[in-house]
């Protein structure tokens, strides 16, 4: 015997179906956990692209009268 393994082919033990099912379920669990961790890393690592400002600059407030705090309605007869 070398390192716990028999050199005789007749003495090789096959894994039972119970052990195979356990290994399959265990691998599915590990794969599921790995996928969740990978998804969390991707979500945390995402950086939205930087947008270039338009040539005229951003216009945060409406430019027509009566809308917005810095653009009051024009009152008649003023």
TrEMBL record:
Pfam families linked: Antimicrobial_5
Xref: InterPro entries: Abaecin_antimicrobial_peptide (IPR012524)
GO biological process: hemolymph coagulation
Gene Ontology cellular component list: extracellular region
Parts of the chain that traverse the membrane: 29-46
Keywords, comma-separated and alphabetical: Membrane, Transmembrane, Transmembrane helix
Protein name listed in UniProt: Abaecin
